[in-house]
Request: fold
Amino acid sequence: MNIYLIRHGDSEGVSKGLKDSERKLTPDGELKIKNASLFWKNIITEFDYIISSPYLRALQTAKIIASVYNHKKEILIEKRLGCGCETESLMEILNSFTLGDIAIVGHQPDLSNHLSRLISGSGASIDFKKGAIAKISFSNKVKEGKGVLEFLVPPGFFIPK
Reply:
């Protein structure tokens, strides 16, 4: 099983009268995710599933990725992936699938925590920027400390010409 943790793109700042879950991507954030997704296609042929936090900025990110990949399946929206997601919840979600290449679109600091706990029993310090993607592979079920970090690609790694 291959897990791809993806942090949503640049989004609107916090403002009065706007719930955190309602913040949307900025036009620059949309463009950066589109360009990043186009680059990812060079190293990731497809996603079997795209699972997103229900927060607007994450869902918009997932939709851009699905569009670039011509992903025909429905994007799965998972409430437990909202801000504050526990790694145990993520593992439950992932282990409900048998195998595959699964993209998870979520938030910070959750993604850094997930990545650290999935690849290390003693923890790792990870800076997971907006628009970054990490691939973690598992030989079987997802278990804490048993994942292999294949790559962590920061945003802007690929800048189109």
